[in-house]
């Protein structure tokens, strides 16, 4: 890439923008990284490299004078830029990019038409008693398009004061009320007993928190619930609620 200092003045005059890095030698110009920023943010990746895969690719392409930077949208406020960034990442798929996570927008992100239907119409699905379990409210940890392993690890731990009732056999991973996945709970163990591959957690040896051992539920169960809006009691600030049990039982066990 040519001297980048000449771009600093024009970038400084712009409002928040969304940008894409790509291999200029690729005729499709398919991005490998999507970002947002103000001022010379898009140039900082070149000026201040780190040891990430994204940075390594940027430096390699820049050395070959093949680093392309496109401004996808500009002249936006921060809220709009977050939405545009998240939408671009959702469209391309984080698996196709060197972005570590989805965009920073707090909105739902990419969902299926069926999920959209249930969400907008608020058509709730009640959990059957034979599928009683815990609905985990992943409103701060869920990311649109996260891997199946990342979703499982966000759901299985780590939890305080978990009700280890043997009748609660299923775990429902939910975000904004939508059921993203269902797991069969095999057992509960002390938090930190199992290894986490997608989360960086510091768990004290004397922790009283727990995590479950499980697997994705049978397809027949998933067909009933995944993508549906779950009917559940109020959480009262708790990160999980019991579902599929009668109100009287919830009151007794709470």
Question: What this model shows, in words?
Answer:
It is a single chain. With 254 residues, the chain is an alpha+beta fold. It has helices at residues 8-12, 41-47, 53-63, 78-92, 113-121, 148-156, 219-225, 247-253; strands at 16-23, 31-37, 67-76, 124-125, 133-137, 170-175, 178-190, 210-216, 229-230, 240-243. This is GIY-YIG domain-containing protein. It comes from Candidatus Pantoea multigeneris.
The strand order across the widest sheet is: 8-7-6-5-10
- Summarize model confidence as the mean pLDDT: 85
Run of helices and strands: HEEHHEHHEEHEEEHEEH
Radius of gyration: 22 Å
Record field, number of beta strands: 10
Please state the structural category: alpha+beta
Instruction: Describe the global form.
Output: elongated
Helix content: 25-40%
Ranges where pLDDT stays below 50 over 5 or more residues in a row are none
Number of helices: 8
How much of the residues is beta strand, in percent? 25-35%
Terminal Cα span: 62 Å
For the largest beta-sheet, the strand count, sense and barrel status come to: 5 strands, mixed
Short structural description:
The protein has helices at residues 8-12, 41-47, 53-63, 78-92, 113-121, 148-156, 219-225, 247-253, and strands spanning 16-23, 31-37, 67-76, 124-125, 133-137, 170-175, 178-190, 210-216, 229-230, 240-243. The chain has 254 residues and is of the alpha+beta class. The protein starts with 7 loop residues before the first helix and ends with a helix.
